Amino acid sequence: MPKMIKPIALTDFKLRYNLLQAPEESNPDIKDTLRQAAVLIALIHEEGEFHVLLTRRPTHLRSHPGQISFPGGKVELGDASLIETALREAAEEIALYPDNVEVIGQYPAMKTFSGFEITPVIGLVKEAFTPKLDPGEVDELFTVPLSYLLQAENRQKQIYQRHGIHHPVYFIRYREHLIWGATAAMINTLCKHLII
Fold this sequence. Notes:
Layout: H1 10-19, E1 35-46, E2 49-56, E3 68-69, E4 72-74, H2 82-94, E5 101-106, E6 110-111, E7 116-125, E8 140-145, H3 146-150, E9 156-162, E10 165-174, E11 177-180, H4 181-194
Parallel strand pairs: 1-7
Antiparallel strand pairs: 1-2, 1-4, 2-3, 2-8, 5-7, 6-7, 9-10, 10-11
Organism: Shewanella violacea (strain JCM 10179 / CIP 106290 / LMG 19151 / DSS12)
Keywords: Hydrolase, Magnesium, Manganese, Metal-binding
GO molecular function: coenzyme A diphosphatase activity; metal ion binding
């Protein structure tokens, strides 16, 4: 029987996050010039536990159509930092505004075969908000309990070969959603960071 993981309290989450170092994850050795991007791993604390906020991208998009992702996108010229990129994109995509997010840190950038170097920014949503989805960027918004994601059996890893090199690809199934690729890898990093 799988070990049950208790919900993490707000103060405990901050303490664990600040004390622990993110585990190193092997990044693909990609030589191409990559476009810089940032995403917001937003955590909402409600009913005594954290929930991770996720979106589903529309199928008409050129990059990652129909996939589950975090709010985020490419760095724009006016962005002062990667954190600003992640917060700006969250405001544009789902109406989660910067003054309602407590940024607690970020993880090292993750390279993707789709041509991006994505920096995950971790933030806590301060107060309940009413999402307003940009239909050009987001088809659906949903949350997953962090306690579900922390269960190791809910995070699967498979090894795939590309140009003779083996790479891990992560998969998480939650209800009707299949979370995979960079988004699942970032969730896996967050979970490994928090389990002590």
